[in-house]
Amino acid sequence: MHRLIARLVPMVAASLALLIMGGCGNSSDDSVVAPPPPTLTDTFSGTLNLNGAITHSFTVTGAGSITAQLTTLSPDSTKPVGLSLGTWNGSICQVILPNDNSVQGSVVVGNSSTIGSFCVRIYDAAGTVVDPQTYVIDVFHL
Is the pTM for the entire model greater than 0.85? Predict the structure, then answer.
């Protein structure tokens, strides 16, 4: 009988140790999730004339979505103009995403895979801006 108890005690102790250690694993529901970086807004404004074009540059500080919105177009918010997003090399806007038929409220959405210099361009795509149009463009990005 003493032999049976002598054999069972170490086995029970080892089993209890494994049970206790199994509850102390690395899984945890208290994982820390970093908050997303804040979205930046650049606001550009000016006056667009017949057959004109104006380019504004901005810097993206993280990969993610870039949205350009033609917030205001006045005096005729229904007059179509061009709105585009592109990359900026310091002197030229390389248009990547054009919308040649934008009106007030129109958006152009792109995606940046890296930080860098980008641009938004507004232009009289079809020569329809007879009277000067004042505009406001908001660009949302990281």
Answer: no
